[in-house]
């Protein structure tokens, strides 16, 4: 089990052995082997091995450009290498987005606390924000269906070739530039910074007025920018 942070460029190819901390876009705390993982290289830490019921804290500080992990309130040395991978033409190191991330092996499990409950071991001597300070889930979104129930729903779902491949609710009417991949509705395309198909960075989103004709030129020069989170903040979550 490896718990930590990842950027959107991280590979996440579990069938090929890529987990959190196995590329330059993610970092992970490994409490079993007492290691920090980054770019598939391990750095030992001095915390004891974790055991069932322990709590791992994960803090990311955008001002100091460092990540701090803790086990039951005992912190390890700050980790800064993940911030070296940001684009040099970006306005700040967190323009690409950072996410809580985890890799598990079979039969491993944990509970994540993004702020819905008070932290057992909150960061000391520092102000911080929780994931839940930025967003919340509806009750229906918190329900995780068993796999056989998901498959049953999928079998009963009728999907048209015209539907957006992401939300499967709206018509796919957008072409991404410069890669020219399509299959996305306007609403979903505005949430993307990179193409889900080829991972190329998106410069433009072009509206298809008629699928029998070429895409509309009137939007070909329009560039949409994704909303960025507040740069001057620290984000904290725990898992147990």
Automatic annotation (TrEMBL):
One GO-annotated biological process of the protein: proteolysis involved in protein catabolic process
Record's GO cellular component terms: cytoplasm
Annotated RING-type domain ranges read: 164-199
Q: Where is the composition biased (Basic residues)?
A: 225-234
Spans annotated as Disordered: 219-240
Pfam families (alphabetical): SPRY (PF00622), zf-C3HC4_3 (PF13920)
Q: Which UniProt keywords apply?
A: Metal-binding, Zinc, Zinc-finger
Q: Which residues form the B30.2/SPRY domain?
A: 1-119
- GO terms assigned for molecular function: ubiquitin-protein transferase activity; zinc ion binding
Instruction: Provide the protein name.
Output: Uncharacterized protein
- List the source organism: Didymodactylos carnosus
């Amino acid at each position: 089990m490896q718990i930590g942070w990842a950027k959107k460029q991280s590979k996440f190819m579990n069938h090929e052995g890529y987990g959190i901390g196995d590329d330059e876009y993610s970092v992970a705390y490994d409490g079993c082997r007492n290691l920090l993982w980054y770019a598939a290289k391990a750095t030992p830490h001095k915390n004891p091995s974790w055991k069932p019921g322990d709590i791992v804290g994960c803090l990311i500080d955008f001002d100091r450009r460092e990540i701090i992990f803790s086990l039951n309130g005992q912190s390890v040395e700050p980790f800064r290498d993940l911030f070296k991978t940001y684009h040099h033409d970006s306005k700040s190191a967190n323009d690409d987005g950072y996410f809580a991330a985890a890799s598990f092996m079979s039969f491993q499990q944990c509970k994540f606390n993004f702020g819905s409950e008070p932290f057992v071991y909150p960061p000391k001597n520092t102000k911080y924000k929780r994931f839940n300070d930025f967003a919340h889930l509806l009750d229906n979104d918190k329900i995780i269906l068993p796999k056989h129930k998901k498959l049953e729903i999928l079998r009963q779902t009728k999907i048209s070739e015209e539907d957006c491949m992401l939300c499967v609710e709206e018509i796919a009417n957008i072409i991404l530039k410069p890669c020219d991949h399509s299959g996305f509705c306007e609403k979903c395309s505005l949430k993307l910074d990179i193409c889900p198909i080829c991972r190329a960075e998106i410069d433009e989103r072009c509206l298809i007025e008629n699928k029998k004709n070429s895409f509309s030129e009137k939007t070909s020069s329009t560039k949409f920018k994704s909303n960025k989170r507040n740069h001057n903040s620290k984000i904290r979550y725990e898992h147990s």
